[in-house]
Amino acid sequence: MFYQCTIIYLLILRLVNCDRSFTLVLDTTWSMQDDIDVIKANLPSVLNTQEKTDIGNYIIVPFNDPGVGEPIIKATPQEILSSLNGLTAAGGTECPENSLTGIEKALQISKDQSNIFVFTDAYSKDAHKIGSIENLCENTRSKVIILLSGFCSSPNVDVQVYFDVAKACSGAVLKFDAFNLRQAFPYMKEAINVKWTDIITSETFVEYKQLTFTVDAFTKTSLVVASGENPTIEMRTPDDNSIAVEKIVNLRNTQVPKSVEILMDAHITLRGWVVPDYYRLTKLNTIPAIPRGLSQLSLGNFILAILRELYPG
């Protein structure tokens, strides 16, 4: 009976309109010109391979000095890419920037459970917005992922507020520079093509720590995002065997390994000054979306599709 109720509950969830936004919060100050060129060149690879039907709109929230520009909201990937190609970097000769105001605006106008990606090379000077952002993330359940490509700052301002945003918004902070920013886009593909469940977010530590997580029968794969000073990550089984991983991002300041084995338990060992985020993808997150109009597929066949996903073979 419990299982039958679970299936009915999942069906009801799929029948409810739950589309989300794909949102960029984009620093358009002059120092971002090279970064914006990289974004223009690589974002099509993210959106053109995006097969999900639950993205309802595409948004760019530009911010500069002194404030946030008019949001750009489009219905299709092609339209938002065209708008992106029309943006240029200019102004904003002082650091830091009003990046949290841009994040706040993005959370206000994006749909619930959206993925919000922040591109900037500067720290934030509007840290007082953190309370509003925490409330918005709690209410909308959106994820905020900060892709930091520089360290433009001023006295009494540091990067910690970005990690506070990531912790409140089930996101992450990934550190790049203009030369390796292109490595951000494989990670973006992972983030938008599946719905990762956040387990541990932004637990800062120095030198060494071992995290243990249990993988239940519904878990398909796991993803770790570690940002800091020269982080190293090892994923091993309790009997000390290495776990096979795919390196989504492999840089001096950011490591993103994805496990490709299904295991019941695992240990993650991290060294360095590290802020880790651990996510897992469950089979329940990959249940196929219900078709528009059950005339395309009978309800019985849809339930069978769910059962095949949960219990393959």
UniProtKB/TrEMBL annotation:
It is found in: Secreted. GO terms for cellular component: protein-containing complex. Residues 1-18 form the signal peptide. Residues 22-176 form the Hemicentin-1-like von Willebrand factor A domain. Keywords: Secreted, Signal. It holds the Pfam family VWA_4. This is Hemicentin-1-like von Willebrand factor A domain-containing protein. It comes from Chrysodeixis includens.
